[in-house]
């Protein structure tokens, strides 16, 4: 696997050029997200589509973006394109973790947060 830092100065077509099949994958991302959400008002920006396509192609991807920029949608898109794969997301805030789990679950995907709020010893029964 390779690791890529996304370059926000490139548009989607420029950024996807080195990755055969990524442009088609980006359009699959949109179709899958629309189908799962039941609505068509979701629009992936270039950086979101690129990150989701790169993840779906099996490339490690490190994407830094501001709060509220739609990183969760990239995770959802990648998960929809890779059923059965485990996707790890690191988040520093408990509230953000809870929000991410809630949002991902709305798309019919399994999500859990692992943090200091969980018991180290699961209750029996």
Spell out the key features of this protein.
125 residues; two-stranded parallel sheet; 44% helix; 2 strands; disordered N terminus; 5% strand; mainly alpha
Write the layout of secondary structure elements.
Blueprint: E1 3-5, H1 12-16, H2 22-37, H3 46-56, E2 60-62, H4 71-81, H5 94-105
Parallel strand pairs: 1-2
Helix pairs in contact: 2-3, 2-4, 3-4
What does this structure look like?
Helix content is 44%, strand content 5%. With 125 residues, the protein is mainly alpha-helical. It has a domain at 3-82. Strands 1-2 form a two-stranded parallel ribbon. Helix 2 (22-37) crosses helix 3. The model is unreliable at 1-6 (pLDDT under 50).
The ordered string of helix (H) and strand (E) elements is EHHHEHH
Rounded Rg: 15 Å
Major sheet size, sense and barrel closure? 2 strands, parallel
Instruction: Classify the beta-strand content into a percent band.
Output: under 5%
| Strand order, sheet with most strands | 1-2
């Amino acid at each position: 696997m390779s690791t890529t830092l996304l370059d926000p100065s490139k548009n989607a077509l420029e950024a996807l050029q080195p990755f055969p099949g990524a442009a088609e994958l980006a359009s699959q991302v949109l179709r899958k997200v629309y189908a799962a959400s039941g609505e068509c008002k979701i629009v992936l920006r270039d950086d979101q589509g690129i990150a989701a396509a790169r993840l779906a192609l099996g490339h490690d991807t490190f994407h830094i973006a501001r709060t509220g920029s739609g990183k969760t949608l990239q995770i959802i898109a990648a998960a929809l394109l890779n059923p059965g794969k485990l996707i790890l997301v690191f988040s520093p805030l408990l509230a953000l973790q809870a929000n991410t789990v809630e949002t991902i679950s709305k798309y019919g995907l399994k999500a859990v947060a692992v943090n200091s709020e969980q018991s180290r010893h699961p209750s029996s029964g």
